[in-house]
Write a structure and sequence with these properties.
Blueprint: E1 2-5, E2 8-10, E3 25-31, E4 38-42, E5 46-52, H1 70-74, H2 76-84, H3 91-98, H4 102-114, E6 118-123, E7 126-131, H5 133-141
Parallel strand pairs: 3-5
Antiparallel strand pairs: 1-2, 4-5, 6-7
Helix pairs in contact: 2-4, 3-4
Length: 142
């Protein structure tokens, strides 16, 4: 996907005719794992540009970095998920921040839920996860 200038966006290399979307609703949807982008539309009212995420949205200076002792105990990827949950996050947000796939994040959350280290709750349509008191103790002890 690339910006062509003059209000033009090329989504892929297919030879589809250009579409005029002035006044339509346009939504950008990042997805994991890495796959080619595509476009979806519903008549002339709604369009979605679906594109693969690239990179990790958090740099190495994150104050919620994984404590050194926690990685060997839980595994680095699972410990990273637990460390990030100091505020409520959805699985989609965790995927974006960690760079892990949806299945991996889901498995980590299941293990952390079963261990009583995180809890989940609904906020509208979203399911949000956050650390429990036991999860706090583990992250702070590290």
């Amino acid at each position: 996907m690339r910006w062509l200038g003059e209000n033009r966006l090329q989504v892929n290399l297919h030879e589809y005719p250009p579409r005029e979307i002035s006044g339509a609703r346009l939504v950008f949807v990042p997805v994991t794992p890495q796959r080619a982008g595509w476009v979806s539309w519903e008549e002339r009212e709604r369009y979605a540009v679906v594109y693969p995420c690239s990179g990790v949205l958090a740099d190495g200076s994150d104050p919620r970095a994984v404590p050194a002792a926690l990685g060997p105990l839980l595994g680095d990827a699972r410990a990273r998920v637990l460390a990030l949950l100091d505020s409520p996050m959805s699985t989609t947000q965790l995927c974006a921040v960690t760079g892990q796939g949806l299945g991996s994040v889901g498995r980590h959350l299941r293990v952390l839920l079963d261990a009583g280290l995180v809890r989940r709750g609904r906020a509208g349509r979203s399911v949000l996860y956050t650390r429990t008191a036991a999860g706090e103790v583990l992250v702070r002890a590290g």
